[in-house]
Write a structure and sequence with these properties.
heterodimer, A: 193 residues, 6 helices, 18% strand, B: alpha+beta, 5-stranded antiparallel beta sheet, cytoplasmic vesicle (chain A), Longin-like_dom_sf (chain A), golgi apparatus (chain A), Adaptor related protein complex 3 subunit sigma 2 (chain A), transport (chain A)
């Protein structure tokens, strides 16, 4: 089971928070803070797993995270999930975001918080992995946004506005979330027999 | 980042002005969310942020309650609320509107409404009830999206008691034509299974259908359920092994559509899941394992692309190979894979490699030897997570020879680590290793000192307790014990010498106890000096009250040793005016004892912390006083829970109307006994009120937790000194420390010969470290290579206990194995050992008795006995008693149905007053060559009384028998442990414990262990378990129809469910009710036409009322109780019983 999914930026500002196990509000904020504290002090060349935060349940729980440009994606899972499997699930989630938002960046997550939640709902449902196939997820999300188009007159405007903003010529446009390391290469390994 | 956002946002209004139409009552919402975000990013302090958000929230509050706000605007407001909530601000005022939006909105608004609800509410929130109808409506909708949303929300936040409402509709969705709906339904049902397994019991067949669904996606979802169910009960799904293997074969063989590929690996997550399921199924099951060898081999072979996800599959594969019944060929391949993980430069893979090594190292220590250099490198890895994982691995391979090096590494890590969780975990491990493998006293005490100062007050409390007990009880050798104690005293005195020492409270408590108890061993230091040191501590402001009590007690003990001590008198004087009552009490006691030297010597004897002082625990000297008081009209004593009940009833505003005050008869208390309240206070913790302190003082100074219980029902059970001298020579202990260094050098040279590469000095250091770390593991040839022979210096008793225990279990398993042959062979087998002959005798005795009884008690044997058979899982007994012969007298309380056990039973005769009560048959729990344990459940009015018979087969007396129930879910009265000084050859003793369930659950295992001494003075241990079901704790609730009516309305939880009716009987309702009544111990209050009301209670006092009605061939039951769990479990048993019929 996945217990919580946290996305925050390099300064610890929450961008997407989804708990699948109930924690009181102040506890949630503490978990976010502590997780950020744990994750942010780790270099990029250490492993992506963290064990046994005392906040969420102790030894049975693991934090599995990935760091993309300005954002940390942290999944808190119990021992019934495979570590590397979740690591790739994060990748799938981010790639899906990238596809749905066309070059996703932190701004998309801020302004389309609801949409990000809908996408997440198609990947993880109530703490259980629902779908790992990116095309399938995108298909479901598109089905829903078709609805939006048919219904949304005014509500379509903000999206247009933001995409216009994104294409403006800002001197320091936020970098796109880097999803370059899709292929984890292990150069010094001979292929398995 | 923030300035980028800022720039973006300043640009926003101009863009939005195209769209936004000012006036016309429309709000440009995006600009509102936008400006909110903008404003927040501009802020510099948390304080300003909270001010801004508060302002924002008050605007939202205004808008939300305005009747002119349209649903569309509401939708935008919700998004803003979600944003505020994410930042940690309370928006509870708007929750109700989120529910409203989900209820009334069109599709898009509904979606936001549901999202908000799922983010805002939790499963215990009271507003959730308002959502049920909306969800029901949407589940029935023809619109796919609405159904999806409803399923999602149901799986996310629905609590136990709301599941029955939606369950039928969700179940129906398993047949839906759209695969996405079927998948979501399967997952929702999985969630329901996790929350309330009993409620989805009836749809297990449908899960099978989902497993065979034509769409692979649905199948994948259903695997999650199976993984959980197989984990809960692996034996129930062995028949599916073939299917899972077939699925995995097809997946690995690429039979799935290409859509399922991820980086050209076919459905990797599915493979991972299947491998995990196979591991669960193949564990300890050779035949199931054989089915999977092929496909595992194939998986190992196919996973050859260097991608993250293939490693994920490989890792699972390796774990599965090592979990199932071993096959050497596969193990070799898996070991090779582990090597690739460990040697990988990818740090994630290295981490997993270490994890895998930790997992397999007990089976195959050689693997750790192969990778020793990598492990050494990992110890110095910059990533603390890798380091910790390495330590975990080292912890698993620790033995008597490498313990110093490993513990040193662990402590070094602990010094750096600041994480509380890591500290607690590692400190516990270090303490365990030190106790098990300590090479000498000095090292042990020093290590424990570090543990105490590092672990501080966060460590597990049993670490200091165990340490003190180890010191107090001593080991095999009296001289060694003295040395250890003396060393501890010396080291603590030198620690206290230091100025400004700031030790954790727990450490100070340990120090003061040891100094109080053993400083007399240090003859060259006057007790006066020790007392002064302690006094200095006492004056420190940082010392907690609890620690002060420990110190005071230590000083009192010191005082008993010295003839006249001015320091002690001074302390007593000073603290007798102290404001803290506990300390004052101590001071006064100290004063009183100083005046009466004789008494002091008596109650504070030297080196006798393990011996017990006789105390009149029943306080019989007060009997006269009590009688007088009663004569004068005082109220009789009531136990606390009765008082509480009465108190709750007397309350003006009764918030707990559900607790029944049941008449507690005097006879029922004859078991609990007078001594129980005082017995409780004896075992309670150290700090407490003054009354408790006196109590403790009376018994002994500073009793430690976990000290053996010596008070049984009959009063004082004589116990010989635990720390008695042991004559037999302890194994000679070669000085490991001294020889280690030489050997290390040898080892290093041997090692370096093995490696073709020339080593520089640094590498040699590492080699040296490696040889000291990995000494003593692996097979014997490796050992001889290392130039060391296994040495088993048995220093600490704990260690020897462990060894004994493993021997014991080994023997037990051998016995079990031989017993697994059919019983008739067993009878014929002439060579069979004495013990099994005994058992056979026992078995035949039982059988004959049973057949005799079968005639007289025909009323209720067949079903019940089968059920009881199921609940007694002990292998030996189920083989010895064939189910047909076994009669179980079931719990029933109408006097006519009470059955008696034949009193001629020479083996297990129940005490006369107990054999009059309803009880079960005596079943065997466990046995070995020397002892047999049997138990009988007595269904008493207010508890379940468990009578345990201990029978000796040994020809010599068995001594120091101790029976414990280390329980968590069961409340054990009287005492959780029984102790017998000795048991004569071929005789039986019994002991009784009252049991109550702490929380209702369908069934649970009572686990216990029996330790005893044989002639050889070795401690042996015998473990046993007994399955208790809820029904053991259910009693009829005898009430009138009127009372029933009153109670019915006062219970909060209710559940309705349809049960099977025994339709072939003449009067189906009565027949069904009678079956339920007989099996479940219910009280039928009334039957009117097609309806009936029933009442029962779970001990001590959780009532449950049932209302039954015959409705279209089913029995519609409606249950109400203060405890939802009780209803659940009771329903589960009802269903099961009726299904069996």
């Amino acid at each position: 089971m996945i217990k919580a999914i946290l996305v925050f930026n390099n300064h610890g500002k929450p961008r997407l928070i989804r708990f699948y196990q109930y924690f009181p509000e102040d506890m949630q904020q503490q978990i976010i803070r502590e997780t950020f504290h744990l994750v942010s002090k780790r270099d990029d060349n250490v492993c992506n797993f963290l064990e046994g935060g005392s906040l969420i349940g102790g030894s049975d729980y693991k934090l599995i995270y990935r760091h993309y440009a300005t954002l940390y994606f942290v999944f808190c899972v119990d021992s019934s999930e495979s570590e590397l499997g979740i690591l790739d699930l994060i990748q799938v989630f981010v790639e899906t975001l990238d596809k749905c938002f066309e070059n996703v960046c932190e701004l998309d997550l801020i302004f389309h918080m609801d949409k990000v939640h809908y996408i997440l709902q198609e990947v993880v449902m109530g703490g259980m992995v629902l779908e790992t196939n990116m095309n399938e997820i995108v298909g479901q999300v598109e089905n829903q946004s078709r609805l939006e188009k048919s219904e949304g007159g005014l509500s379509g405007a903000p999206a247009r506005a933001v995409s216009a903003v994104k294409n403006m010529n800002l001197p320091e446009i936020p970098r796109n979330i880097n999803i370059g390391d899709i292929n984890i290469k292990v150069p010094n390994l001979s292929p398995f027999v | 980042m923030s300035d980028v956002v800022e720039k973006t946002l300043t640009a926003l209004p101009s863009l939005l002005s195209l769209d936004s139409q000012p006036g016309a009552g429309k709000l440009s919402i995006t600009s509102k969310l936008g400006s909110l975000i903008k404003n927040i990013t501009e802020l510099t302090s948390k304080h300003e942020e909270s001010k801004l958000i508060k302002k924002e929230l008050s605007t939202i509050k205004e808008q939300i309650s305005s009747p002119h706000t349209t649903l569309r605007q509401m939708k935008e407001i919700m998004v803003r609320m979600i944003y505020c909530e994410m930042l940690g601000y309370d928006t509870s005022f708007g929750y109700i509107h989120a529910i409203k939006l989900a209820q009334q909105g069109s599709l898009l608004e509904k979606r936001v409404g549901y999202l908000a609800v799922s983010l805002f509410l939790n499963e215990n929130h009271e507003l959730l009830l308002l959502l049920v109808n909306t969800v029901l409506k949407d589940l029935q909708s023809t619109n796919l999206v609405e159904v999806c949303m409803a399923l999602t929300i149901a799986s996310q936040i629905f609590p136990k008691d709301m599941i029955p409402a939606v369950l039928p509709l969700v179940e129906e969705k398993l047949q839906h034509s759209k695969e996405i709906i079927r998948r979501k339904a399967v997952l929702a049902l999985y969630k329901f299974y996790l929350i309330a397994p009993n409620q989805v019991q009836h749809i297990h067949d449908k899960f099978r259908k989902a497993l065979c669904d034509r769409d692979p996606g649905v199948m994948i979802s259903s695997l999650q359920i199976y993984q959980q169910m197989i984990k809960d009960c692996p034996d129930g799904y062995k028949d599916l092994t073939g299917s899972f293997v077939a699925i995995l074969k097809q997946v690995v063989g690429g039979k799935l559509p290409v859509d399922f590929n991820y980086h050209s690996v076919p459905a990797p997550w599915l493979q991972i899941q299947l491998l995990r399921i196979l591991a669960l199924l193949g564990k300890d099951d050779q035949s199931a394992s054989e089915l999977m060898y092929d496909v595992l081999d194939e998986s190992l072979r196919r996973a050859e692309i260097n991608h993250n996800i293939t490693y994920a599959i490989l890792f699972e594969c390796v774990k599965t190979v090592y979990t199932i019944h071993p096959k050497s060929d596969l193990l070799q391949k898996a070991a090779k894979c582990i090597g690739k993980f460990v040697l990988s430069h990818k740090i994630n893979l290295k981490y997993l490699g270490l994890k895998a090594l930790t997992y397999v190292v007990q089976q195959d220590p050689n693997l750790a030897l192969q990778h020793q250099m990598t492990i050494i490198q990992c110890l110095d890895h910059p990533d603390p997570i890798i380091k910790r994982e390495t330590l975990e691995l080292l912890y698993r391979i620790t033995n008597g020879q490498n313990v110093t090096v490993i513990v040193e590494k662990m402590l070094a890590f602990l010094w750096q680590s600041k994480d509380e969780y890591t500290t607690i975990d590692l400190v516990g491990k270090v303490a365990e290793l030190a106790e098990k493998y300590a090479p000498d006293n000095e090292w042990f005490v020093k290590t424990m000192n570090t543990v105490f100062s590092l672990g501080g007050d966060v460590m597990q409390p049993d670490i200091p307790n165990n340490f003190l007990r180890l010191l107090a009880e001593g080991f095999e050798n009296e001289i060694e014990d003295k040395q250890l104690r003396l060393f501890a005293v010396e080291s603590y005195l030198s620690l206290l010498d230091k100025e400004n020492c700031n030790f954790p409270q727990r450490f100070l408590q340990v120090i003061s106890w040891v100094l109080g108890e053993y400083s007399y061993l240090k003859t060259d230091t006057h007790p006066e000096i020790v007392a002064e040191r302690l006094q200095k501590l006492l004056d420190q402001s940082t010392i907690s009250q609890e620690t002060k009590s420990w110190i005071m007690a230590a000083i009192t003990k010191l005082a008993s040793d010295s003839v006249c001590s001015s320091t002690v008198t001074e302390i007593a004087e000073k603290h007798s005016v102290c404001l803290d009552t506990v300390q004052r009490q101590h001071a006064f006691e100290m004063k009183a004892l100083l005046d009466d030297r004789e008494l002091m010597k008596q109650i504070l004897p030297k080196d006798a912390s393990c011996e017990d002082i006789e105390v009149d625990i029943s306080l019989s000297f007060l009997d006269e006083f009590v009688a007088n008081a009663l004569d004068r009209g005082a109220a009789p004593y009531k136990p606390p829970h009765q008082r509480q009940q009465e108190l709750s009833q007397a309350k003006a505003l009764n918030f707990e109307p559900y607790g029944l005050s049941l008449p507690i008869s005097a006879s029922s208390y004859s078991i609990a006994g007078r001594q129980s309240p005082t017995g409780l206070s004896l075992s309670s913790g150290l700090s407490g009120n003054s009354a408790e302190m006196t109590q403790k003082k009376g018994s002994n100074s500073l009793k430690l937790e976990g000290v053996k219980k010596v008070w049984g029902k009959e009063g004082y059970l004589p116990q010989s000194e635990t720390a008695q001298e042991v004559n037999h020579p302890s194994a000679s202990c070669p000085d490991v420390e001294a020889t280690t260094m030489e050997k290390l050098v040898e080892n290093a040279s041997v090692q370096s010969d093995l490696l073709p590469v020339a080593l520089n000095v640094k590498d040699q250091e590492k080699q040296q470290l490696a040889s000291s770390l990995f000494v003593g593991i692996g097979s014997h040839d490796t050992l001889s290579l290392m130039g060391k022979s296994e040495n088993n210096a048995q220093r600490f008793r704990k260690r020897s206990k462990l060894k004994e225990y493993s021997k014991e279990t080994e023997r037990l398993s051998r016995d079990e194995f031989s017993l697994q042959s059919p019983p008739q062979n067993l009878l014929d087998n002439a060579n069979f050992s004495e013990s099994s002959e005994n058992l056979n005798g026992l078995g035949t005795l039982f059988t004959s008795k049973f057949s005799k009884k079968a005639d007289s008690t025909t009323l209720d044997c067949d079903k019940m006995s089968k059920q009881e058979m199921l609940t007694v899982p002990t292998k030996g007994s189920s083989l010895l008693f064939t189910s047909d012969d076994m009669v179980v007298v079931k719990p029933s309380h109408s006097p006519a149905e009470i059955s008696f056990l034949p009193s001629s039973n020479q083996y297990f005769s129940l005490p006369a007053e107990l054999s009059q009560q309803a009880h079960s048959e005596v079943v065997q729990l466990a046995y070995n060559d020397f002892l047999s344990l049997s138990a009988c459940k007595i269904y008493q009015k207010d508890c379940l009384l468990l009578v345990v018979f201990i029978t000796s087969y040994s020809s010599t007396p068995i001594t120091h028998i101790e029976l414990c129930f280390p329980q968590s879910k069961l409340k054990v009265f009287n005492s959780a442990a029984h102790h017998f000084h000795s048991l004569e050859a071929k005789s039986t003793v019994n002991c009784q414990s009252c049991l109550l369930m702490e929380e209702p659950c369908a069934q649970l295992d009572l686990v216990g262990n029996l330790t005893y001494h044989l002639e050889s003075e070795e401690i042996s241990e015998l473990e046993f378990s007994l399955t208790l079901t809820l029904l053991d704790f259910v009693r009829p609730l005898i009430i009138s129809t009127d009372d029933y009516g009153k109670l019915w309305l006062s219970f909060a939880n209710d559940v309705k469910q349809n049960l099977n009716l025994l339709s072939n009987a003449k009067d189906p309702l009565t027949a069904t009710l009678n079956v339920l009544k007989d099996n479940l111990c219910l009280h039928i209050v009334d039957i009117i036409g097609k309806e009936s009301i029933i009442a029962c209670q779970l001990l001590p006092s959780i009532p449950c009322l049932m209302h039954c009605r015959v409705h279209s061939g089913m029995l519609a039951v409606w249950l109400r109780s203060p405890s939802p769990d009780f209803i659940d479990c009771l329903l589960y048993h009802c269903q099961r019983i009726l299904q069996e019929k």
